[in-house]
Amino acid sequence: MAVTGGPMAPGPSLSRDWADDRSDNHLNGLNSNTSATPLTQARTEHSAHSTELSPHRTSSSAQKTRSVLGLHPNAPIDEEHDHGPRSELMWSRIRTVLREPFAEFWGVAIMVMFGDGSVAQVLLSTGETTAPGGNGFGAYQSINWGWGLGVMLGLYVAGDSGAYLNPAITFCNCLYRQLPWRRFPVYFLAQILGGFVGSGIVYANYISAIDWFEGGKMRTVPPAKKATAGIFCTYPQPFVTKASQFFSEFIASALLMFVVFALKDPSNNGVPKSDKWFPLCLFFLIFGLGSCFGWETGYAINIARDFSPRLMSYAVGYGSEVWTAGGYYFWIPMVSPFLGCIFGGFLYDLFIYTGPSPINTPWLGLKHLMPSYARRARREHIRREKEEGVV
Amino acid sequence: MAVTGGPMAPGPSLSRDWADDRSDNHLNGLNSNTSATPLTQARTEHSAHSTELSPHRTSSSAQKTRSVLGLHPNAPIDEEHDHGPRSELMWSRIRTVLREPFAEFWGVAIMVMFGDGSVAQVLLSTGETTAPGGNGFGAYQSINWGWGLGVMLGLYVAGDSGAYLNPAITFCNCLYRQLPWRRFPVYFLAQILGGFVGSGIVYANYISAIDWFEGGKMRTVPPAKKATAGIFCTYPQPFVTKASQFFSEFIASALLMFVVFALKDPSNNGVPKSDKWFPLCLFFLIFGLGSCFGWETGYAINIARDFSPRLMSYAVGYGSEVWTAGGYYFWIPMVSPFLGCIFGGFLYDLFIYTGPSPINTPWLGLKHLMPSYARRARREHIRREKEEGVV
Amino acid sequence: MAVTGGPMAPGPSLSRDWADDRSDNHLNGLNSNTSATPLTQARTEHSAHSTELSPHRTSSSAQKTRSVLGLHPNAPIDEEHDHGPRSELMWSRIRTVLREPFAEFWGVAIMVMFGDGSVAQVLLSTGETTAPGGNGFGAYQSINWGWGLGVMLGLYVAGDSGAYLNPAITFCNCLYRQLPWRRFPVYFLAQILGGFVGSGIVYANYISAIDWFEGGKMRTVPPAKKATAGIFCTYPQPFVTKASQFFSEFIASALLMFVVFALKDPSNNGVPKSDKWFPLCLFFLIFGLGSCFGWETGYAINIARDFSPRLMSYAVGYGSEVWTAGGYYFWIPMVSPFLGCIFGGFLYDLFIYTGPSPINTPWLGLKHLMPSYARRARREHIRREKEEGVV
Amino acid sequence: MAVTGGPMAPGPSLSRDWADDRSDNHLNGLNSNTSATPLTQARTEHSAHSTELSPHRTSSSAQKTRSVLGLHPNAPIDEEHDHGPRSELMWSRIRTVLREPFAEFWGVAIMVMFGDGSVAQVLLSTGETTAPGGNGFGAYQSINWGWGLGVMLGLYVAGDSGAYLNPAITFCNCLYRQLPWRRFPVYFLAQILGGFVGSGIVYANYISAIDWFEGGKMRTVPPAKKATAGIFCTYPQPFVTKASQFFSEFIASALLMFVVFALKDPSNNGVPKSDKWFPLCLFFLIFGLGSCFGWETGYAINIARDFSPRLMSYAVGYGSEVWTAGGYYFWIPMVSPFLGCIFGGFLYDLFIYTGPSPINTPWLGLKHLMPSYARRARREHIRREKEEGVV
């Protein structure tokens, strides 16, 4: 913040402020026209200067391509990095354009590798007596650890994009927190691809163990006795009714969104304002969802963590049962997380959030759904686009 | 907060102080006439000015309603939020009035959803061989995780009210830390309701699993073989005498209050002065109570976590055994946590705390119980109310 | 630190510095003539001023009594606390005199209550099929949690004394880090008492469960089949030779001291300079010692955690087997932790520590053992005592 | 560091900056000519002045010896320490010369003691019914804890050398982050020795338990039924093909390097800029690798953790099967971690890192492999060495 304030801040103080700037609100300038709260970013008031600095970072052709993709024209790149001859390289330019999608892709891939990896290890080694301890390489709790720390480490890796890692959470940030809707498709695609690749790597890693466990080259889906499809995506318990399937995913997703919005609420006094604690809190949140709501349907709560691996497992030969199992259960973890997150975000904004949100407008924001209102918003958007170049 | 102190704080210090100010002691102005220590707040020296700012936040009619409810007239709301037209909406006004009760309600609800959810998952899936690992979806330790992180995440959610989450802890803050007694009833009600709703959601989520486990629509209470009432509230082990039941809850509650007071003691050099560590420490504390004192009576240590779910389970059809089981055990987790917390707080103030506390007055504060003293305190209170408007 | 520097630090910066002062090095003034590193304190360079402030805090009669006990004349009490009429109360004066012993007492008591409590719960409920999960209320790992978080929470509680919680660690701080030897006896006594009382509370809490488990009023000691003495203190595995018993405690204690000295080394670049992380690191360290070196002899590594509960169990009727079991094993966890900690501290100072330590003097400090050298040190000590009043 | 900059930094900022400076970037001056990112160090902008201070710390003869060993001439030692007569002692001079090797040695030794210790305890006590809980002293998850916290505590201990603790990670820092190649050999040697000594101590500690478990003085290697060689180094599961063995180590190592580079990337907005969180993140990372990729080959991912203990076990009499087991598996955890880490680092630099890295040069840095380029780099290096004395 104090970068422009040189004369006021002589000596070492300069670097301190600058350091703090970087640590908490680097992305800020990029979103200065919104109040979106990417998961890895705190809001501040001092971002004006970065609009001046940013053009030095992102070339104008890259800016155009990024705008077409729905991203902010300026990529979130450290000022010291990627300047000079290095940034002229073709690959560097591509990477600048695709910075956020790459970050989401790898964030989700890391998350799914740890998550599906933990299921694979526990499920395939069930009851192995040669393990230290004599009873398999892990228990159900290892899976809570795997998904919890997978999310935590994914958040660290994907810091440059806001680290949503979940299309439903991206969606709710567009809906409630003014993240531009235009960014949703490219984030969505990156997250879906990340889940596909991450689960594919787990499959590749455990292929000989799966052969050994299934007793050959066949691949089976629950409720088959030696089914291994449950490593990659979720299948419901047999006794759970369709309504309970839906509700179980719905409530877990609502809890997820409610707590994430609390953790990201700059007005909530219980939450550390610095983002340093957020990944650890998410570890506990995901661990908790797995410990408390992970039995009936396997707590998918994320289309990128369920649909993508399901597609991958279909591609490598698990057969059409991956779609038909559980009474065509597959659509529930696609739809329910969106609805659950929307409901959870609604509850938080209704009862606790006091900042700008559609819920905090007349008629709880339902006006926004009326055609006349939508037309007006569209005109306003176009006008702003003309004035400021991009939105 | 120091924003108004511009001339005194030139240069970058301004923003740093402001940032730190926000992070740790936002609620302060609201309690500037007390030395109460809400669980999510550190004490500072700079709160005088916020009484000037607050009137802009809370309308005078809302102030009156809040006073009637026993709350501080000014709601703890971020200065940047809820100004302008937004705060004129009727719902926003209601939310401003009920800010702390809403926070406590959701904090307790989140806590109970994770806590009871973990018991439900572990208990209902006991020994299921289809689980990864072949032995259920979690073990006893998952329940320690569930309650521990439920409290942690509840503290994050309920930051605006001080995040007591437990009537006994609110009570001891009134008794020992000058939290105004008038606030106790509305906090109490919100906490009790939160426990009721949170456990109700767990019941709704696991209803088909409970049917499957009990083998039909019946609902049974321990020590029945397939009892599921233990998901929601605590039942003692059969061999534990009434005295041991009482003592087990008493000692766990005393430990809880003793350590919480230590963690909130600004004079204790072992404790980080920032509140960032507090929720994590509570995770460890609750995990520890469950690991070490969770067997005999199930470590209720909180009437909102035991009585409310018990009532809920009675309402959904578990029958009158929820009250009669264990020799009318139900009253122990209602009474014992209060007495235990009072004793734990007494010990801490007696041996370690050096700040203002009734224990640190002549006759260990017992004078306060004398009628003559109580009359004098009442007169003093009324005088202060006249002078300052509210207390 | 900047308290005396008012003119240089106007406005809110003042409070910040002061706040940091409090958080990290409040105890410093008390040790300004030493370089002792209490476990909850970082070293700084700016402690001169507190010698001026302290006399306002501690009355001269209390100073004398504290000197007699071997404590620093000025008690570590927050400046804002315990002034005015409050500090005139007799009990407040006693508490001021016994501040550090009280802190150590409660720190050890909290530690032992969680630690022994976790053993009690796991051992007594072994295999209980009515538990959620169907297999007892916890497993061996719960005990790692119990001791780990017991130490962590004990450190928080005992911040005012330096939170050694272990006579062997106090001893090594006297030996290697210039903690005055005169303080050792009163710390030692407080720690021993804390272990006695803490384990007594655990016994009182589990008395009906112990009756149920042992099958009556008898009390037995390992290797009896239903022995419960192992709840309170450690007994070795039957196959472990005396040498291995000794070595197992020795190596665990050496590891403990080595890592604690690393975590407290202000020159070690891997360690956060703030003390906020220290209790969490100790949680991991103790958890690790229990997971890795906890089988053969039960990782006592602390006379206050082993001898005191053993005495308590002897007092409540476990019989003389508590002393004779394991071939009079009881003396090993009394002696070995001291020797192990001395060796661990020696290794750290020899290979890594570069600050003032006897090891960093000619002949590795062995000169200090020579009578002539000791006489000289004694004369030097008396001279300093005359000049500065106290040491 | 800013202590000498008094005039530029008046008032309390001085002490604050100095404190922060110390905490995060003490090592910086030593690497001011590189952009290497030792695991325990953040990059800053203010390191020029320390080249002036350092000569006071390290004598010129020590500087020469250090240069010969490939280390930076100035040892990373706190300015306040090791001055005056103390630093004249012969042992102090040796310690100054070997500072980083000592740190790496002890870091790896601590890591292996906890890691191998946890395997020893779990494996040797498998199914012991006398344990509290009735089923051994730990389960597979204890091993995840052991290695995770072993790495965490090792990082704390080895802060002065950068705390690589793994030759493959040192190698990748040379390759991608400009750590001078000359330092690799001495780090490598120290790490290998640390693993040897650490595992030797575990063997010494558990020798009587191993005798008891194996049923005599023999020592056996998996897949023997009572094999104990798996305590020290890794052996693959019998059904895993050679390709899967390689791939399992490769993918785990790539994940390790990818996430470590993310955690150390100053341009990644998801990562706390302070290093305080790094050891905790590594705990979660290693725990995750063990939970998710620890079954097939035992997640060696580190030659110092696998080869050295294997050599130790060979030396104490486990026989030549330690080399031949699993179809001469021993070379896989020697080679695969290097290749995996190189690949993981390559992916991170290709997709996310924007700072100076060979990947961010034309032809993805492959030019560096051409002889003509290498000759030029050599000349450049010699020129710089002449100008600046050392590199």
What is the topological layout?
4 copies of one chain form a homotetramer.
Chain A: H1 13-25, H2 48-57, H3 60-69, H4 90-97, H5 99-124, H6 140-157, H7 167-177, H8 184-214, H9 242-263, H10 278-293, H11 303-318, H12 321-328, H13 332-351, H14 371-388
Would you kindly provide a written description of the structure presented here, covering whatever features stand out?
- Four copies of one chain form a homotetramer.
- Chain A contains 14 helices and no strands.
- Chain A folds into three domains: 2-49 and 74-97, no CATH class; 100-349, Glycerol uptake facilitator protein; 361-391.
- With 391 residues, chain A is mainly α.
- Chain A has helices at 13-25, 48-57, 60-69, 90-97, 99-124, 140-157, 167-177, 184-214, 242-263, 278-293, 303-318, 321-328, 332-351, 371-388.
- The longest helix of chain A has 31 residues, at 184-214.
- In chain A, helix 3 runs parallel beside helix 4 (90-97), helix 5 runs antiparallel to helix 6 (140-157) and helix 8 (184-214) crosses helix 11.
- Chains in contact: A-B, A-D, B-C, C-D.
- Chains A and D meet through helix 1, helix 4, helix 5, helix 6 and helix 8 of A and helix 1, helix 5, helix 6, helix 10 and helix 11 of D.
